Amino acid sequence: MKQYVIDQIRPEDQAKLKVLLETELGPPAVGGIYWLPLEASLWTEVQVAHKDCQPFYVAVDLEADRLVCELLVRTRDRMHCECMGYATAAQRAWLIEKIDGILQQLHIMV
Q1: C or N terminus of the chain, fewer CB within 10 Å?
Q2: What is the span of the domain harbouring residue 80?
Q3: pTM, whole model, 2 decimals?
């Protein structure tokens, strides 16, 4: 699995991340997994065409000492579909900027 990982997160920073993620994304689905909605303007042509699969998400897993972001764009309604797949360059850049922005907003140095 391709991932964007921020490791060596201190316990106090993990707590700040947990509060922000729960406030903005709701409670985690399972364990520490949050569903970060992918900005619709970044959807591929196939994703735009798959109305039944929308919206699309990236899984963000908050662990005790790290934040793991899957680079797999998925739907929450299906396990397999041609609209799901690894993030495009633009989607990947958006995700990294989004996570880096959250870290900056919370004054988390990694």
Answers
A1: N
A2: 3-105
A3: 0.91
